[in-house]
TrEMBL record:
<feature type="transmembrane region" description="Helical">
    <location>
        <begin position="165"/>
        <end position="185"/>
    </location>
</feature>
<keyword id="KW-0812">Transmembrane</keyword>
<dbReference type="GO" id="GO:0004608">
    <property type="term" value="F:phosphatidylethanolamine N-methyltransferase activity"/>
</dbReference>
<keyword id="KW-0444">Lipid biosynthesis</keyword>
<keyword id="KW-1133">Transmembrane helix</keyword>
<keyword id="KW-0472">Membrane</keyword>
<comment type="pathway">
    <text>Lipid metabolism.</text>
</comment>
<dbReference type="GO" id="GO:0005789">
    <property type="term" value="C:endoplasmic reticulum membrane"/>
</dbReference>
<protein>
    <recommendedName>
        <fullName>Phosphatidylethanolamine N-methyltransferase</fullName>
        <ecNumber>2.1.1.17</ecNumber>
        <ecNumber>2.1.1.71</ecNumber>
    </recommendedName>
</protein>
<keyword id="KW-0949">S-adenosyl-L-methionine</keyword>
<feature type="transmembrane region" description="Helical">
    <location>
        <begin position="95"/>
        <end position="124"/>
    </location>
</feature>
<dbReference type="GO" id="GO:0032259">
    <property type="term" value="P:methylation"/>
</dbReference>
<dbReference type="InterPro" id="IPR024960">
    <property type="entry name" value="PEMT/MFAP"/>
</dbReference>
<dbReference type="GO" id="GO:0000773">
    <property type="term" value="F:phosphatidyl-N-methylethanolamine N-methyltransferase activity"/>
</dbReference>
<keyword id="KW-1208">Phospholipid metabolism</keyword>
<keyword id="KW-0256">Endoplasmic reticulum</keyword>
<dbReference type="GO" id="GO:0006656">
    <property type="term" value="P:phosphatidylcholine biosynthetic process"/>
</dbReference>
Length: 204
């Protein structure tokens, strides 16, 4: 069972009305909303492929924008943590090195996901009509669904523990919720894209 009193004490360290905290929440929520809206618009209209001259060029451009937004998100996350108090009982070597270990695992999942999918596979290439021949099942997809998202979440969790930051933990929860909501939309839509591909192959 969840210790409500402990949770209340933990988040008593967090000022959710702080401007930096609010900016971090908005940045976290905006990113998956942005790339889902843009990618679906591209899938429906092919407007970016026409503007950039090819689907690959358009996908690379979107990927660059997503990377930039992720840098902004990470900066806002870190600044929000720094502006709020640490939890004294967590400000120790054990918590710090636990955070380092979690961050390292998250980084492993993110990097290995990128290597397995490639640039276009990572940055919504299927919405641009750049489809893979088969579903990727190699590591880390062999041990975890959506390892890019959960690896990223683990990175923020580790970073928060390293800073003994209750605000960071709450923001990490926002990251996890944002990704969970994004997956509710991305998963079925991506499956439909590949279903249509298979239907087209069978009709030939």
């Amino acid at each position: 069972q969840v210790d409500v009193a402990a949770m209340a004490r933990l988040f008593g360290y967090v000022d959710v009305t702080d401007t930096g905290f609010i900016v971090a929440v908005v940045s976290i929520a905006f990113n998956p909303l942005f790339w889902n809206v843009v990618a679906r618009w591209e899938h429906k209209t092919r407007v970016f492929s026409r503007v950039f001259g090819s689907a690959h060029a358009a996908c690379y451009c979107l990927g660059a924008v997503i990377l930039l937004l992720n840098c902004v998100r990470s900066h806002c996350f870190t600044e929000a943590m720094k502006s709020q108090p640490k939890l004294e009982c967590w400000d120790c070597h054990w918590t710090y090195y636990s955070g380092v270990a979690i961050l390292a695992v998250g980084t492993l999942f993110v990097i290995s996901s990128f290597l397995a999918l490639g640039f276009t596979g990572t940055f919504l290439g299927d919405y641009f009509g750049i489809l893979k021949e088969a579903k990727v099942t190699s590591f880390p997809f062999s041990v975890l669904d959506n390892p890019m998202y959960w690896g990223s979440t683990a990175i923020y969790l580790g970073w928060s523990l390293m800073h003994a930051s209750p605000a960071g933990l709450l923001l990490t929860a926002v990251v996890a919720i944002s990704y969970t909501i994004a997956l509710l939309y991305e998963g079925p839509f991506t499956e439909e894209i590949y279903r249509q591909k298979q239907k087209g192959v069978k009709n030939k």
